[in-house]
Amino acid sequence: MVTIPGDSYNPAAIVIDVGQTVTWVNKDTDPHVSTTVPGTPASFTLVHPAGKSASFTFTKAGIYPYYCLDHATFNPSLRRAVARKEADTFPVAMEGLIVVKGPGLTGSQSATMKIAGGAYAPDIAVVRAGGKVTWINEDHTAHTATFVGAGTPNLSLAAGKSGSATFAKPGVYFFYDQRGATYNSKLGLAAAKKGAPNFPIATQGYVVVL
Amino acid sequence: MIRTRIRSAAAGGAAAAILLFGLSALPATPAAQLPATPRDALTLVRQALAALEVSPPDVAVATERVIKALFAQDTRGVDMPRVRDAAQALGAEDATAAAAYLMQALHPAEAEPSGVDRTLLVPVRPRFTATPAVYELLAAAALLIGAGSLIARK
């Protein structure tokens, strides 16, 4: 179950098995419209009137980033939700992630993420348990890949340098660039700092370990 | 002769005063009689389509209308799954795809035995509508003008 307490999803990211149903419970006084970003294995657009619930059954494994159409727009080139200025959580976009495990989502033993123009590309990596993820900073400025939680890596990546981390346990690991964003523990997402290259889009991503 | 002119002027003045009073009783603008925002999905989808027909397409307005359409109680004449597809396309700023989905959403509803699809009929809105009191005042003003004219002739 995902709760909508305001202009955010709680939790921001969840993992389910294929065939399971996710229910969004809108506890906000505002209506919301959740929609998947283009390119997901299946798409949904769910209407959440204030105080009501809506559900979707995931029949295809894969990664499903989604956002609220009423409180965010979508940037096709960065493939990220962009908070509308009227959103209570601005600059944090009302966005979420659903990882649906099952046939077709196997993950690789290693993955590479580039950092260019102040953005991770791709911003979601899927690896198997024990898999390694490498970040290559192609920018002319330093960045970080800072994870949240005890025992998680915090990589400082000078301009033109790279760094790696190995993930032993399955789960969804959120990371962000400490140079251009701050972590909002309440929302479970990063907030872009003013002056960040893609403000209000925060430099953040996920490592999904299967 | 002077008396006749005075009576005629008085009657004309009274008629004009009643006419002005009657006109002041009318709504300030005809638009004030229209609902501020339509609540039916059909109108909202049409408005969204119109916003996408301009150059460059007004994606913001179209998105706002489509979101309202998604929450509309009256969805007659609209294929709502296509509206959801349009919403998704608008989110991705794909105005062309959104317009195509909205066109599909405006599928013709099933016709009645007469062959007329009543869902898609737009009710005729009268050009001038007023309360009975306004009509009474206008009638009184017209009578006074007529009376004034008769008196003037005599």
Can you give keywords for this protein?
heterodimer; A: mainly beta; Immunoglobulin-like; 2 domains; eight-stranded mixed sheet; five-stranded mixed sheet; 0% helix; globular; B: 154 residues; mainly alpha
Separation of termini of chain A? 21 Å
Helical fraction of chain A equals under 10%
Structural class of chain B: mainly alpha
| Element pattern of chain B in H and E | HHHHHH
Query: What's the story with the biggest beta sheet of chain B?
Result: none
Task: Give the CATH superfamily of the largest domain in chain A.
Answer: Cupredoxins -  blue copper proteins
Structural shape of chain A:
globular
Number of domains of chain A: 2
* Element-level helix/strand string of chain A: EEEEEEEEEEEEEEEEEEEEE
Mean pLDDT of chain A: 94
Query: What CATH first level of the largest domain in chain B would be assigned?
Result: Mainly Alpha
Q: What is the radius of gyration of chain A?
A: 17 Å
**Total number of domains of chain B:** 2
CATH class of the largest domain in chain A: Mainly Beta
Oligomer: heterodimer
Secondary structure: number of strands of chain A = 21
Description:
The complex is a heterodimer of chains A (210) and B (154). Chain A has 210 residues and is an all-beta fold. Chain A has 2 domains: 2-101, Immunoglobulin-like; 108-209, Cupredoxins -  blue copper proteins (Immunoglobulin-like), CATH 2.60.40. Chain A has no helices and 21 strands. In chain A, a hairpin with a 1-residue loop joins strand 1 and strand 2 (8-10). Chain A is globular. In chain A, 42% of the residues are buried. The model of chain A has no long low-confidence stretch (mean pLDDT 94). Chain B is an all-alpha fold. Chain B folds into 2 domains: 1-25 and 131-154; 37-106, Four Helix Bundle (Hemerythrin (Met), subunit A). Helices cover 60% and strands 0% of the residues of chain B. Chain B contains 6 helices and no strands. Chain B has helices at residues 2-24, 41-53, 59-70, 80-91, 95-105, 132-153. Chain B is rod-shaped, with a radius of gyration of 26 Å. Chain B starts with a helix and ends with a helix. At the A-B interface, strand 5 of A face helix 3 and helix 4 of B.
